[in-house]
Amino acid sequence: MDIVQFDRAAVLESVRVVERAGPGDWDRPTPCDRWTLRLLVEHMGTQHIGFAAAARGEGSGPAVWEPRRAGDDPVAWYRGAAHALLDGFAQPGVLERRFALPEIDAEGTFPAATAIGFHFIDYVVHSWDVAAALGVRAALPPAAVEAALPIALRVPGGARREQPGAAFRPALDPGEGVGADGADTWELILSALGRSPKWSPPQGS
């Protein structure tokens, strides 16, 4: 599998877990600070739209990345955004292009494989975020989970990850609260990106 196939697996899993949400779930808290499930899904869909534009060579304009609202049917809205992204990444020759991602670098561009890797790790983690908020499990092909770990470990640390709105919080110690056999790959990924593998919704939510 190449990075496009890994990303596709993560996106399809994100669709699967979002489809588990019912009308009463959209105000649920998520592992993402200050984001309800609705706000998280709107962020995820907005990023799909932006990355699909970047794959077409149209990602440099700030309007492409402006937050979208999911409307009355967040599941259908998200599914549509996800499939637009998958279509964009499935274009012939996409891996030969460079992507403009102004939220990461306002001046430069990124090789397609690098840019799609950014997207892939986001949707590995966001699939887990949605699943955790709903009290279900995320399920990705083992090869995709293994591919995600080195990407997660390469995400830079430092003060940027401590700022409000940072994509990832500072890394956690993966040894905290894991089983007797040590952290598994999922736990290592989540901990590297500032998620507690043991996160669950607050009582009463």
Any overview of this molecule?
With 205 residues, the chain is mainly α. Helices cover 46% and strands 2% of the residues. It has helices at residues 3-18, 37-55, 74-89, 112-134, 142-154, 185-192; strands spanning 98-99, 110-111. It has a two-stranded antiparallel ribbon with strand order 1-2. Helix 2 packs antiparallel against helix 4 (112-134). The chain is globular and about 45 Å long. The model has no long low-confidence stretch (mean pLDDT 90).
Strand content: under 5%
Low-confidence stretches: none
| Overall mean pLDDT | 90
**Number of extended strands:** 2
Topology summary:
Elements: H1 3-18, H2 37-55, H3 74-89, E1 98-99, E2 110-111, H4 112-134, H5 142-154, H6 185-192
Antiparallel strand pairs: 1-2
Helix pairs in contact: 1-3, 1-4, 2-3, 2-4, 4-5, 5-6
Label this structure with key terms.
two-stranded antiparallel ribbon, mainly alpha, 6 helices, single chain, 205 residues
Summed up, what is this model?
It is built from six helices and two strands, in the order H-H-H-E-E-H-H-H.
